[in-house]
Amino acid sequence: MRIRRAPDLTGDGVPVARDPRGDDGGVGTADVLLARDARWHLVSNLQTAPATCAVAVCVDTCRARGRSAEGHDMHPDTTSYNRALSPPDQAIGQRLAEELDRHLPDADNKIWHAHPVWFLDGNPIVGYSKLKDCVRLLFWSGQSFTAPGLKKEGSFKAAEARYTAVEQVDSSLLERWLAEARDVQWDYKNLVRRKGKLERLK
Question: What pTM, to 2 d.p., does this model score?
């Protein structure tokens, strides 16, 4: 049995191997094993090529190490924020952070007002926070979006979505919101300088 090194998805080359119990048929017909913490974890009969299998089997490892499923390092403060949440909320936070990193790769992510926020050119775009009974996803310019599903929040232009389970996160809808978040922006960065007057950037 030969060990293949997966594409550098986790930064340290997670080794992936064909299950020795599998047949010697075509690529992708055998089970795939994942080495993690000196233990082998079996992922049953993935019907795909090894490179793609590596993406599938490394997801849990990446999350444990504060990385997205694509292997990009998540901001350590965002990772710490998620780890402090309860398991259900942690799953929501991790999912949201991965999606935001994926669709806003040029954004700056940091903890701002005690929760993770993504900025474009210094302007706050989107973030999430733990409320009493949910995790709230907030778009600073969301009231001006055309995609449905967000609710008005506050007296400016922000809008929100709330989640109590990770299954409620609709990736397709979230992608639409994030596309609009890039193209539709109100200037919060200069709100104080303009003495509370909010002007549209895009």
Answer: 0.66
